[in-house]
Every structure is written in C-alpha cells, then in structure tokens.
Amino acid sequence: MAAVDALSPQSPNRRRDEGVTAELDSTDRKILELLQKDARLPNKDLAERVGVAPSTALERVRSLRRRGLITAFRAEVDTQALGRPLEALLAMRVRPHTSQLVEPLRAFVLGLPETIALFHVAGPQDFLVHVAVPDADHLHRLILERILVRQEIVHLETTLIFRTERRTVQGPVS
Amino acid sequence: MAAVDALSPQSPNRRRDEGVTAELDSTDRKILELLQKDARLPNKDLAERVGVAPSTALERVRSLRRRGLITAFRAEVDTQALGRPLEALLAMRVRPHTSQLVEPLRAFVLGLPETIALFHVAGPQDFLVHVAVPDADHLHRLILERILVRQEIVHLETTLIFRTERRTVQGPVS
DNA sequence: ATTGAAACCGTCCCGAG
DNA sequence: CTCGGGACGGTTTCAAT
C-alpha cells in the first residue's frame, strides 16, 4: 500500500465559517469525483483509488454525507428509454407573485408526472419547468389543458431541448 | 471501472419499433422509483420492498441497466456546501450557427468548472448553460472575461436561480 | 484522524422449478 | 422468469496508534 500523500496542512487561520461548508482536502475531492461518476463504486475500490484504507474511505464518505456535501445517491434513468424522448423548458410568469399563489403552483408543477425539475428564477419569468413527454402532441395538451388553465399563469414560453449534457461538479472554483 | 456493460443479446424479440422502450411491469417501476431515491439501497432490501427474491431483484436491476433505463448511479453533491451557492442560467445565441462553431463552444462550456449542465435548445437562444458560482462577482467575471470574449456568442442573457427542485422520474406518462 | 484484522452480512453464481 | 442455497467477498466495527 502506498504511503499517504502529503496532505495539505490546515491553514493556520481559519476563514469565516461559511455555514456547513468545510474545507476539502484532495482525498475528499477525489472521493466526490469518483462517487459522482459511480455511486456504487465498492468502498474497497474507492479506498484503493484515493490511496487510503477501506475503513478510512468509509469514514470519509460518511463525513461527506454528514456535512451535507453528498446529499444523495441516486440512480439516473433515461427518459428517452422510458418512452418520453421529448424534453422542453416551460418559462412561466405568475401574477400576482405572492406566496399564496406561488406555493400551490409549485406543488402542482412538482406533482405533474411530466416534470423533471423546477427552477425558481429571477427576471421577467418566475418559474422554469423542465419536462419530458412522449411527443409534441402530449406537450401541447399538457400546456393547454393542464397548465394554462390556471389563471395565475399570465405568460408561458416553451423552449424545446435538443440535448442535455451534465458535468460532474468539481470542488470550489478558483 | 464501472463503464457500460458488455453487449448482451436481445433476449426477447418483441416488437421492433418500440425503440429502446421496453415494457415495464409494476416491479420494474417500483425498482426505478426506489433506486432513484437511494441508489445504494441494498439488493436484499430492494427485493423485500418490491416483493421478489434477492436474486430476482438483482436480475431485474441488471436488465434495467442493459436496456438503458438506468444509465448511471451517481452521488449528488450540494453546490452550496461546496462553496458555490449562487446558480444561474446563461442563455446564449451563437452566430453563425454552424457545427464548426457550435462544437468547440460546447466543448469549452462543458470544460468550465462552473458549468453544471448544458442545454442545447431551439428558439432564439441556442445554448442554455446552468452554472454554479461562489458569488455574484465571480459570475460577473466569468461572463465578461471568459464567455463574452468569444466572438461567436452574439447575445447572452443571465437568469439567476433562486431554487432548484428535482423530481424522481416516473414511468411513461399516460 | 487513520489503520489492520476479524466478524458480519449482502452479493452473486448456480441448479432447479 | 423466478427462486432458494451456499461460497465468496466486501463492508463495518473496534481497539490501537
């Protein structure tokens, strides 16, 4: 087994505590990188690839979860293989923009089986809804018959998505 | 390395035009649901919760991977805990919209450490880039000093994200 | 905080229904 | 396709450093 790399020494002066944000050494960063690529990577392999003992790797992962850096382990499903090859973004404006109207709408949108994600945004649009549907006709009916019937939505713009690409998240950017 | 599994023969010669869409029975759907919530759910527990034997559950999951319904198991990291609490969507128009310009730009955007996701969209905007940054100043500099210096980007609109919410993907929508 | 070793337990292959 | 048994191997705990 290889000797442990030179760990970055803890800075003598700790910065202001940024909430749950903790300092990540290079081992933590490698673990995050690897588990983002494969959440089911056996702990033994993980340990080997980051250069620590299995028990240490186990504790590191637990610590990352406790500190909130890892929020979940999830299986990624392909909406195309699921029979919903068409994706779109629905940008909607809600008026009046009060929480009494926004909150029920948020719950409604998240309750739609077509919804993949919901962005609460600033700007002329208030909501951005990411949906996946079987075809254009389904999208059309979804918008007209289930979304636009809600009177609090005063404007809606549909943007078709050709492709979605995701990146693994790196550590704090420079 | 847990890359894509080896090719496997298509066991049942069912309908040919259903694309990769396979028929999902209720067991498959339950498995997808549970593994989206927790990719590390032990196979034994998974089997118990869907009501089959562990060996059966194992084969179901493998089949779901082979058929492309499950594309990956990933750890989800919290960008806020990572020190990048500010998210934004950058909508950019690229002109001329040729693949000779688009492809390098796509590679560039995906290479940025700030990038979380990239949407290739239809409409007046061509790209939608989801980024996470430490603060507004970082975002400002990212846009001015690294993105807008590229001459093929003729327009850019920034939308701040207050909150992102994701849903687990259900089976084929009715 | 990290480690090695041991006990535990889930995974996974296989033969059968 | 499903199931149970059993060998294998990984996970997890713990005392020590």
TrEMBL record, chains A, B:
Residues 1-22 are annotated as: Disordered. Pfam families: AsnC_trans_reg, HTH_24. Residues 24-85 form the HTH asnC-type domain. Keywords: DNA-binding, Transcription, Transcription regulation. InterPro entries: ArsR-like_HTH, AsnC-type_HTH_dom, Dimeric_a/b-barrel, Tscrpt_reg_AsnC-like, Tscrpt_reg_AsnC/Lrp_C, WH-like_DNA-bd_sf, WH_DNA-bd_sf. CDD domains: HTH_ARSR. SUPFAM superfamilies: Dimeric alpha+beta barrel, Winged helix' DNA-binding domain. This is Lrp/AsnC family transcriptional regulator.
